[in-house]
Design goal:
CATH topology: Aminopeptidase
Number of domains: 1
Distance between the termini: 43 Å
CATH superfamily: Gcn5-related N-acetyltransferase (GNAT)
Radius of gyration: 15 Å
Number of strands: 6
Largest sheet: 6 strands, mixed
Strand content: 25-35%
Shape: globular
Structural class: alpha+beta
CATH architecture: 3-Layer(aba) Sandwich
Helix content: 25-40%
Strand order of the largest sheet: 1-2-3-4-6-5
């Protein structure tokens, strides 16, 4: 086995915040947002998502070392809030295995092929409910 999947531990939080914030920073959706605003507001959004009891986070890591994280998924039934895999490991099937943990929703809609993985659809609008 090249990796194992486990639930998120408290020790994983800094990696999740760092990788999520850095990897989404260049997304077109936030292209005009200053770094100060982006990092504050998106950190708050990620925090709210991670603290939602209906959301689960699964970690792909080395089979013999839980601290060696390869990737993770944050989501709930049919909703992928974020999936991340380290660059050198992006072609070995980790994201596909993580996405299989998010069961498809009857409410998913069509998406561009780049946003469709398996039967689940990345829906960034699902995250906005966390902003008050």
């Amino acid at each position: 086995m090249l990796w194992k999947i486990r639930p998120m531990a408290k020790a994983d939080e800094s990696f999740i915040y760092s990788s999520w914030l850095k990897s989404f920073r260049d997304a077109p959706a936030v292209s005009g947002v200053s770094n100060t605003v982006y990092f504050k507001c998106h950190h708050d959004l990620v925090e709210a998502i991670l603290n939602d009891p209906s959301v689960s986070t699964h970690i792909a890591c080395a089979p013999d070392d839980d601290s060696q994280i390869f990737g993770y998924i944050v989501g709930s039934v049919g909703v992928c809030h974020w999936v991340y895999v380290k660059h050198p490991l992006r072609t070995v099937g980790i994201a596909k295995e993580l996405m299989a943990l998010i069961k498809p929703s009857v409410h998913t809609t069509k998406a561009r092929p780049s946003t469709l993985i398996g039967n689940s659809v990345y829906n960034p609008y699902e995250q906005w409910k966390y902003y008050k």
